[in-house]
Design a protein that fits this description.
There is one protein chain. This protein has 8 helices and 8 strands; from the N terminus they run H-E-H-E-E-H-H-E-H-E-H-E-E-H-H-E. By secondary structure, it is α+β, with helices and mostly antiparallel strands. The protein has 2 domains: 110 residues, Alpha-Beta Plaits (2-Layer Sandwich), CATH 3.30.70; 88 residues, Alpha-Beta Plaits (2-Layer Sandwich), CATH 3.30.70.1060. Strand 6 and strand 7 form a beta hairpin. About 4% of the residues have low confidence.
């Protein structure tokens, strides 16, 4: 196993996850626009500090999932899913990640109505067998934004909700839910491991996407098996 995948597996292994229920708070780490180049030793040191912080958040019971995004170009470095009492607390936790403090990333935090039980199965499996394989895999992640034809209470949004629920019933999704936000972000859907192309074809049939009421921004999120509840 490469050092990168060992590092990702360590993230998942550090998460002592509990049964949860939404809303969660999701933090998107985005590359800082004026990033300065780091030497190899500086980059390794910062990554070590970042990983230690992830483990600490998990040990504190605040973090229920984390993982990087494997995109080219990189517009989201990775994300944290937090289960805390308020968005203010979630922001305070997220901004103290070393990559944010060192101006490698900025962070945006939103309340996310994800499904209950994120990480519950993972926790049970790894409590019973700490050596169970992590099997880190990329998950297509779609971020729904208000589209060019957006209108509040558009009837097509009900069709969108039914469409997402059908994808869930068909076993295509790992998690999905609406976002509480004053800006353009509307919701989030995370597919089970599959090609990005297959996921994109599925969401192209969403009635709200077809009507341009919603648009989709795509990312490849890496997560261990059994973290997502669906």
């Amino acid at each position: 196993m490469s050092s990168r995948w060992k590092m990702l597996a360590a993230v998942a292994a550090a998460l002592s996850l509990q049964a949860q229920s939404g809303p969660y708070y999701i933090a998107f780490l985005r590359p800082y626009a004026q990033r300065k180049a780091l030497s190899t030793s500086q980059a390794r040191k910062l990554q070590s500090e970042h990983m230690a912080n992830i483990r600490q958040m998990a040990d504190d019971g605040d973090l229920v999932a984390a993982g990087p995004c494997d995109d080219t170009p990189t517009t989201i470095s990775g994300l944290f899913i937090l289960k805390v009492d308020s968005i203010h607390e979630a922001r305070e936790i997220a901004v103290h990640d070393p990559t944010v403090l060192r101006r490698r990333n900025t962070v945006d935090v939103y309340a996310w109505h994800g499904p209950p039980g994120i990480g519950e199965e993972y926790n049970k499996i790894h409590q019973a067998n700490p050596d169970a394989p992590e099997n880190m895999q990329p998950h297509p992640l779609g971020m729904f934004y208000k589209g060019s034809a957006w209108a509040n209470n558009d009837p097509v949004l009900a069709g969108h909700e039914r469409f997402i629920e059908q994808l869930h019933k068909d076993g295509r999704l790992g998690a999905a839910g609406d976002i509480d936000t004053p800006d353009e972000l509307y919701g989030l859907v995370i597919f089970k491991p599959m090609t990005m192309e297959d996921a994109q074809v599925m969401l192209s049939r969403d009635p709200a996407v077809r009507a341009r009421v919603l648009r989709v921004e795509w990312h490849r999120w890496l997560s261990a098996d059994h973290v997502l509840p669906w």
